[in-house]
Structures are given as C-alpha cells and as structure tokens.
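User: what does the whole thing look like in 3D?
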Amino acid sequence: MNVKVDKNGYYGNFGGAYIPEMLYPNIEELRENYEQITEDAVFQKQFQQLLKDYVGRPTPLYHAERLSDKYGAKIYLKREDLCHTGAHKVNNTIGQILLAQRLGKKKIIAETGAGQHGVATATVCALMGVECIVYMGEIDMARQKPNVERMRILGAEVRPAKSGSKTLKDATNEAMRHWINNPSDTHYIIGSVVGPHPYPEMVARFQSVISAEIRKQLLEKEGTELPDYVIACVGGGSNAAGAFYNFYEDNDVNLVAVEAAGLGNDSGESAATTVLGKPGVLHGSKTLLMQTEDGQVVEPYSISAGLDYPGIGPVHAHLFESGRAQFHSVTDEEAMVAGVELSRLEGIIPAIESAHAFAALEKMEFKPSDVVVVNLSGRGDKDLETYIKWGKY
Ligand SMILES: *Cc1c(COP(=O)(O)O)cnc(C)c1O
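Assistant: Here's the predicted 3D structure for the full assembly of 393 residues, as structure tokens:
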C-alpha cells in the first residue's frame, strides 16, 4: 500500500497545509529545507549518536512470556518507556532541535497539553543551551503541576494561554501567534504527526527509528523482520506512525491503531476520532476531526491526557480510510484494567496511553504462532495519581 506523502503533503485525501498567510514563509522555509537537512550524513550521525548516548537507544524488544501465555500469541514489547524522559516523544524533539540549529534558529517554542511534549522540548533545549518557551492552557497548568515544574527546573518559560477553554487548542493558537511574530529567529517544535505539511511527515521520520529497530531486533530473535501484528495507541499518532513506518509496504503485517473511547463512544465523553470524527481542518491539516454539525471542534475526553485530542494525524486518517490499519477503541476502564494486568504479569507499569494499546489484545484473536509487537510508548510514573484515584488494584 502506498502510504507515502505526496509533494503537497497529502496522504490520500488527508494532510496539506491549511495555514494563515502570515505563517506561509515559516512553513515554506521548513518544507524547502527539511529533507535535505535531515538526510545529510553529518545530521544523521549526530542524531543517531544522541539517540544512542542520550536517549538510550536502541530500546529493547522484550518477549513478554506471561502476557504471551495469557493471549495465546508470541508478544513482544517495544520498550519506548525506557527512553530518557520516559516516552517516545524525545526521539522527535532531538531531531527537531538539531534541525532548528541547522536553520540558524536561536529560540524554540512549543505547545503542550498534558505537559509531556513540553518536558521533552525543555529537555533538548537544556541539552543544547537554547531558549525555550512552552505555551500551555491555564487550566492544564493547574491540572499538570508536576510537569510545569519539570519544565521550569529544566530552564523553560511556561506561558499560560488564557483565552477560550484555556487548554491545548488555545495554547496552540498562542504558539502560532508567537511564531508569526518571530519568524526569523524561532523554530516551533510540534509534538506529534499533526500540523501543516511538512510536520506530520517530518515527525514520523524522526519516530521511524522505532520500526527500524523492531525489524532488526525481530530478525535476530525470530529469523524474520516481519511481525504479524504491530499495535500502538493513537493520540495525535506519533508513536504509532513510528512503529508502523517501516512496515507500510509489507501488507502481511497487520497494523493496529488504538484510540481512547473515554467513558464510551456513545457517552459524549470520548476521544475516538475514527468512530466519531468527520473530515475537517484542524491545526493546519485536513484530517478526521470530532466536530459539531456546523464544524465546531468537540471537546474530547479520555482518562489519559496524551490521547485527549479531537483529531488524528492525517496519515492515520488515510490508514483508516484505506483500510491499511485496523482501528480499535478502548474505554478508560478497559485501559486501566490492562495497565494493572501488565504490571502484574510483567512487572512493568505502563503509561495510561500505552495501556490502551494493551487493552486491544482482549479484542483480538490470535494464532499461537502469531508474532505480535505492542509499542509500549511510555512509563506509568507520571500517571501514578490517576492509578491511585481509580483505585481498583
Ligand atoms: C503523548 C503520548 C502519547 C500520544 O501521542 P502520540 O503522538 O499519539 O504518540 C502516547 N503515549 C505516551 C506515553 C505519550 O506521552
């Protein structure tokens, strides 16, 4: 199947760059330069070196025997939870900070919802000694106090977005406004495979190290590079895009994307975009989007802050529409149960985002010979309070 981005930034019917004219020069500068810069041998050498020595890559591909027994398949976990800062997000922020340097940008801005992308951005800015401003909704700042303080310890300035619902979309608007006003010295680090072209493809390429490693590691362990299934959770979709990227053209590899159904897809409290969404434009790209009849964005809900997003990256809208990936949705309760199950069977407490991917195992049927890779996108330390509040363990 062709999942390549075309020259206008489309995956099938989705993608593109729907931006205000004021932003055009910034996006154009990126579009014209990102491939040449990131494919350059010196860039790649520095990127790979940092992934190895700073992030701790390659992350292990771990055969989870007790989990395998339970579900009747050979299940491997891709351990992105062991990355520095506790999740896959840092793969992308390392790539983008190196890109920003090559573009001669002296300052970094980012937006963050739950704070995880803000922390990953503040981390690489500290690493490179670059000024960092993170926009965050005022309500999110109150809800995610520890991440606000992490960013501050790392030397970033956290600026509250005080308009609208005071959450992620307002922080995104503020970041865009900042960028329009400071185009020449500032790079905007987007945290998932969303936003105007070339961001979705650029972020996917930085994250594609995940599936590149899976192929190598499976060859060593199974004598073949190809699993039968790759399962990953989807918020914006960057960990999933990274885990799928090098398998798009291997049609025997089943790609499984898992969205958050919150309190249930009929409850009005969900974030399952492929179930509830319709085509629309969000954050600069055409994609599937949860919206009202007249096109107002519907506030999503999930127990997991990282999946609480009203859209999905355009590549996932295309994977859904074309049938190349199957999509499941998982409720808060199912995810929490799966998170505790992984903790008890394997001694690994997952991020609640990642727990959604594990909950899909329950909804699937396997043959004993099936090789299944679950992308364990992050660790559960940040979610301890949510586990405690849920309490059923
Ligand atoms: C942010 C986050 C996600 C969701 O983001 P994607 O871009 O969909 O990967 C998933 N898992 C963890 C641990 C996260 O921090």
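In plain terms: Residues 87, 89, 116, 192, 233-239, 306-307, 351, 353-354, 377-378 surround pyridoxal-5'-phosphate (CB under 6 Å). The radius of gyration is 19 Å.
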